[in-house]
Write a structure and sequence with these properties.
The complex is a heterodimer of chains A (308) and B (323). By secondary structure, chain A is mostly helical. Helices cover 74% and strands 0% of the residues of chain A. Chain A has helices at 2-28, 46-55, 62-74, 87-122, 127-141, 144-158, 176-202, 205-212, 217-246, 248-255, 260-269, 273-301. Chain B is mainly alpha-helical. Chain B has helices at 39-48, 51-68, 105-141, 143-157, 161-172, 181-212, 215-222, 227-239, 241-263, 275-282, 291-318. Classes of the chains: A mainly alpha (308), B mainly alpha (323).
């Protein structure tokens, strides 16, 4: 087990450097003037260009710039924007909101998805089963921004149940609608995953034994079947947390959530390169670590799986 | 490459490793009226009975026709705008109304099918070709080649999709760049392919790994077949099914992805007409003219839904476990 973790951690290293280098090169090595439009209507003064070139090592080849960046990063320094604001500040400001949003989405998709999956898995081919199959198909087919717009229009504008956009430091209640939108696609996948695995376990010997023992159905389903069927769902939720944070750009844009996706999108548009790279670094790191945790969790949940 | 090898002549070879689960294909009882069906024949037999399959195929046919010959559906120029009829409600002359520039929404929705579907189909082909080739090489060679390719795939897999696409596209297709419509379409396709090939590589790799150890591969090798022959004649037909099913679903999700990128302002841009571009243009007027959003969005949803449904029904037919 220890050796497995070590090997996986070592495998993370090249992937981490590969991804960040890819983004770094894309963002910084673009032909063109990095200072275009930075100083309003006029050209930037030479002293400013000189200072910035020195600060960001722009006269060096790109891999040297990257090495400087990584060196600072390993010391916990995310760098600064062109305006001089520490990027760590931006991240500290926006990241809690993204985490909150992702957790709300995760909770919603987990709860609704599992309930729908259990109901349909136990009674295949019933009315509820077909209803869930069709509605999950719809959720998978709808791009997030269409779901977001339609729900925002209906709940926020037409019926005025919630505010169309959320405040700067949103409470959990405000995030329910954006969280639902963000988690809607995964919700459909979870419902289907839970349905298949419940339906498979329904025929298992231990379930028959439990029923034959005379246990009430609630106990058979709640204790015996759920424990075994939810393993794939739990692992899916783990991987999804990483994906949700990176995929929140659209949702955060629609509902004006002050989150990391919102910032990275704005940074890309305004060419704040250091901000883009730093946020991507964090997102990739979270994603990789979540994947590793999920694999370890898998072994913990299912004793049949052993890592040598 | 012309001498016959056992089981490589007909399309039914895709039965390969799954032939044990397929009772109809066993040659024990070849009753003349009910000819023994191969694995694919069996799946086709299953498919023909599904209404969902026919519904989705019909819709896909309509959309393909729309993309190829938009003139069949409308004779109105999608670019002609008359500001005096800006945001006109749906009426008998213009079924779907007029957009903010006074252009006919119906004509635009019809013409928008081409860009959306061309992007989706070409990116799917690219993804499948690159991912499939990489997966085949990784699984066939094994060892350090496998490790190297898998690590490279992980680099792209770890990037969040939307984020990666925005970075790539805003780098090469920023607001300052003046690019022709064809170049923009190629860039969008390229970024979709670059960010999504790892999944198809994994599919191909695991399918090939599962077939690689089969006896007929060993037999072919013992008969002196070279790597090219083993890959093309034996491994490929027997491991291509999962990736083909994935491709159908992928077309659907790429239509959605193209729309998302256009919506974010980094994908296709006017004067190219696509559903995503139309939704992007309509969003500012969602309160006063919701129909501007409704029509392109519903075409988009129906198109995605058709491809995803087709993929799902084909997968169900091909998966012996669900029978």
């Amino acid at each position: 087990m220890g050796r497995y973790v070590l090997r996986r951690l070592l495998q993370l290293v090249p992937v981490f450097f590969g991804t960040t280098f890819f983004i770094y090169v894309l963002v910084w090595a673009v032909p063109g003037d990095p200072f275009a439009g930075k100083c309003g209507e006029r050209r930037c003064p030479d002293s400013y260009i000189q200072a910035m070139t020195e600060k960001f090592h722009l006269d060096e080849p790109v891999w040297v710039q990257y090495a400087y960046y990584i060196k600072n990063l390993l010391q916990g320094d995310f760098g600064q924007t062109f305006g001089g604001r520490p990027i760590a500040d931006i991240i500290a400001d926006a990241y809690p909101n993204t985490i909150k949003l992702a957790l709300v989405a995760l909770a919603i998709e987990g709860i609704i998805g599992v309930i729908a999956g259990v109901l349909t898995g136990l009674r295949r081919n019933g009315f509820v089963d077909n209803l869930v199959l069709v509605s999950t198909l719809f959720l998978i087919a709808l791009p997030t921004f269409v779901t977001g717009f339609v729900l925002q229009y209906l709940f926020g504008v037409q019926w005025q149940i919630v505010k169309p956009t959320v405040s700067g430091a949103p409470s959990l209640g405000e995030l329910i609608l954006p969280g639902f939108v963000l988690g809607s696609v995964s919700m459909a996948y979870i419902a289907r995953l839970a349905r298949t695995s419940i339906a498979e376990n329904r025929r298992a010997d231990y379930v028959r034994t439990a029923i034959a023992k005379g246990l009430p159905m609630r106990r058979v389903v709640g204790v015996h079947m759920l424990r075994n069927s939810l393993i794939p769902v739990v692992t899916y939720l783990g991987t999804d947390l990483g994906t949700l944070m990176g995929g929140a750009i659209v949702t955060e844009g629609i509902f004006n959530v002050n989150g990391i996706g919102h910032h990275v999108y704005r940074a890309i548009i305004t060419k704040e390169n250091s901000t883009v790279v730093s946020i991507v670094v964090i997102l990739v790191l979270v994603y990789l670590v979540m994947n590793l945790l999920v694999d370890l969790l898998y072994a913990a949940l299912d004793p049949r799986i052993r890592y040598e | 490459m012309s001498e016959p090898t056992p089981g490589s002549l007909t399309a039914a070879t895709a039965a390969g490793p799954t032939i044990e689960t397929d009772s109809a294909a066993s040659p024990v009882e070849p009753s003349p009226p009910d000819k023994p069906r191969g694995f694919l024949g069996d799946a086709w037999y299953d498919l023909r009975r599904k209404p969902l399959f026919w519904i989705s195929v019909t819709f896909i046919a309509i959309f393909l026709l729309m993309a190829a010959f938009p003139q069949l559906f409308t004779s109105v120029d999608p670019q002609y705008g008359d500001l005096s009829r800006s945001r006109g409600e749906p009426s008998a002359e213009a079924w779907f109304g007029y957009d903010v520039q006074g252009r006919d929404v119906y004509a635009r929705v019809i013409h928008g099918a081409r860009a959306s579907i061309v992007v989706a189909v070409l990116s799917t082909i690219g993804t499948i070709l690159i991912g499939g080739t990489m997966g085949m090489i990784a699984a066939y060679c094994g060892g350090w080649v496998d490790s190297l390719l898998s690590r490279i795939a992980e680099v792209f897999f770890g990037l969040p999709f939307v984020l990666g696409a925005i970075v790539i596209l805003s780098t090469f297709n920023g607001p300052g760049e003046r690019r022709s419509p064809v170049e923009i379409v190629m860039l969008v396709i390229l970024s979709l392919v670059v960010l999504s090939w790892p999944v198809s590589m994994r599919l191909m790799r695991s399918a090939v790994l599962a077939t690689k150890e089969a006896d007929y591969i060993t037999a072919a090798r013992a008969l002196g077949a070279g790597p090219a022959r083993i890959i093309l004649k034996h491994l490929l037909p027997n491991s291509v099914a999962p990736i083909l099913v994935y491709a159908t679903i992928l077309i659907g999700s790429f239509i959605g992805a193209e729309a998302t990128l256009s919506f974010l302002g980094v994908g296709l841009q006017s004067p190219v007409v696509s559903w995503g571009v139309m939704i992007d243009e309509a969003r500012q007027f969602i309160r006063v003219s919701p129909f501007l959003l409704l029509f392109p969005a519903s075409f988009l949803v129906v198109a995605v839904l058709s491809f995803v449904t087709l993929g799902e029904t084909v997968r169900e037919a091909l998966d012996p476990k669900l029978r």
